[in-house]
Amino acid sequence: MNVYINAGEEVDLPPVQELTSSQRRVLGVLVEKAFTTPDAYPLTLKSLTTAANQKSNRNPVTNYSEDEMYEVIDELRQLGLAATVNTDGGRAERYRHYMRKRFTFSEPQLAIMTELMLRGRQTLGELRQRASRMVAIESLDALRNELRGLFEQGYMQSTGPIERRGVEVDHALYRDKEQKSLGTTTTSPEPATSPASTPQVVAKANVTPQESTSRLEAEIAKLQTSNQELRDDLENIRNEMQTLDRRFDDLRHDLGG
């Protein structure tokens, strides 16, 4: 794919198939801040480091230094994913992303990938709520439609069919050694037709009380999200029923009833 890096030099770069954890964090921060705080974007090295290490909307929480951030920015520049921008008469360097030059994502897909790079695997309900901070995603069906496009491009993975309640999704930019596969391919998963299509979960031995508590909290969060999805579905049904009632009343009025 042809991209422009810095001073307008056009070069051919291969498609991006994987990124390191630090590259994903920096890239995710740049895109997030471009969406949510455009007045402060592009970012200085200090603001980029602070945003990368912030404790909210990040998993895991990190403690990168400014020197480490500078090295990662240089790596992203070599990949055609970031650039240096000189402002204030050339005295201050700021940094911006080039995601739109390197990928063919829609704006919702860009927000989805950004959220997953910053937090990792999530349920659809969690993902829709969090990604909507950057780009509005009106419904779970709208989210699923965007996810299908990401599956087709090979940038998405899931724990099962995305039509199934409670399924989790994640980006597919992990390096092989990170072993972050969710048990499915990165092609759009079809509804399960047999037990063999269900990812197998292997229990780990010697689970500490802290790990058990964390898992229990995660399960509670998933149940709360599923409950909210059910409430949303019920509300949609009620709205549709009200619309049908109004149409029936209008029709009856037109017929002189």
List the SSEs and their pairings.
Layout lengths: L1 E4 L3 E4 L8 H16 L6 E2 H8 L13 H13 L3 E6 L4 E6 L1 H4 L4 H13 L2 E2 H8 L8 H14 L2 E3 L9 E4 L37 H46 L3
Antiparallel strand pairs: 1-2, 3-5, 4-5, 6-8, 7-8
Helix pairs in contact: 1-2, 1-3, 1-5, 5-6
- Indicate the CATH class of the domain at 2-102: Mainly Alpha
Helical percentage: 40-55%
CA gyration radius, whole angstroms: 22 Å
Please describe the biggest sheet, giving its number of strands, its sense, and whether it closes into a barrel. Answer: 3 strands, antiparallel
Provide the β-strand percentage band. 5-15%
State mean pLDDT (0 to 100 scale): 83
Shape call? globular
Low-pLDDT segments, ≥5 res: 1-6, 192-207
Q: Work out the number of β strands.
A: 8
- Measured between the Cα atoms of the first and last residue, the distance is 64 Å
| CATH topology call of the domain at 2-102 | Arc Repressor Mutant, subunit A
Give the SSE string.
EEHEHHEEHHEHHEEH
Structural class, by secondary structure, is: alpha+beta
> Looking across the biggest beta sheet, what order are the strands in?
3-5-4
According to CATH, the homologous superfamily of the domain at 2-102 is Winged helix-like DNA-binding domain superfamily/Winged helix DNA-binding domain
Q: How does CATH name the architecture of the domain at 2-102?
A: Orthogonal Bundle
Put simply, the count of helices is 8
